[in-house]
Write a structure and sequence with these properties.
- The chain is mostly beta strands.
- The protein has a single domain (8-184), classed as Sandwich (Immunoglobulin-like).
- It has strands spanning 9-15, 26-34, 37-45, 61-62, 71-77, 84-89, 94-100, 108-109, 117-123, 126-134, 145-154, 160-164, 182-184.
- Strands 1, 2, 3, 4, 5, 6, 7, 8, 9, 10, 11, 12 and 13 form a 13-stranded mixed β-sheet that branches.
- A hairpin with a 7-residue loop joins strand 7 (94-100) and strand 8 (108-109).
């Protein structure tokens, strides 16, 4: 299930500390809107044997602290508003979405979002992870969004690397609104 190319924003993630990331790893993808939903595709290329992928869970399961292991993340905000959402998507099938009133303030599980529909394909040297998330109950289609795309990668040596479109501070902080660089226009 691909996004219409005209509405998709392509991204390339970079590691906060390049030396801590598995050598030669590249992470890219696209994000776009469809009526009532958000669609994200992550492409991970390189030596996938060096990456720890959490064990699969039966069906989409809501869990906390997914970011402690390999996890794909998205952040959504409405321009001019301090509130935003964080989504965690694990390649194991677990997920969660949280709402914040401001930068890391008043975190609460967002119950207006149901489980995403995700698909993962892995072949030699490439992992494709795509998810469609129903966002109609948190944001109307007529409202443009700002998005931050990120991921956490854990390797077999226990090292964790933090990836984002841009790192705007002295520490990796995916919640920094300055890193919500992708503009997702309103849709009809």
């Amino acid at each position: 299930m691909e996004i219409e190319k005209s509405s998709a924003c392509c991204f390339q993630l970079r590691s906060f500390t390049p030396g801590s990331a598995p050598k030669g790893l590249k992470i890219s993808g696209s994000v776009g809107r469809r009526p009532g939903s958000l669609h994200i595709e992550y492409r991970v290329e390189g030596d996938l044997h060096r990456i720890i992928r959490p064990m699969p869970v039966p069906g989409p399961t809501r869990r906390h602290e997914l970011w402690r292991q390999t996890c794909f993340e998205f952040f959504l905000g409405i321009q001019g508003e301090s509130a935003y959402w964080e989504g965690n998507l694990s390649p194991c099938g677990a997920w969660n979405v949280y709402r914040f009133s401001d930068h890391r303030q008043e975190m609460r599980e967002e119950n207006a979002v149901g489980g995403p529909v995700c698909r993962m394909e892995a072949e030699r040297g490439r992992l494709l992870f795509s998810c469609t998330i129903d966002i109609r109950d948190i944001c109307k289609d007529c409202i443009p969004l700002e998005a931050g795309i990120a991921c956490v990668i854990e390797d077999f040596h226990g090292a964790v690397s933090y990836w984002a479109v841009d790192h705007c501070g002295s520490k990796p902080d995916f919640h920094d609104r300055r890193s919500f660089l992708l503009k997702l226009p309103a849709i009809a």
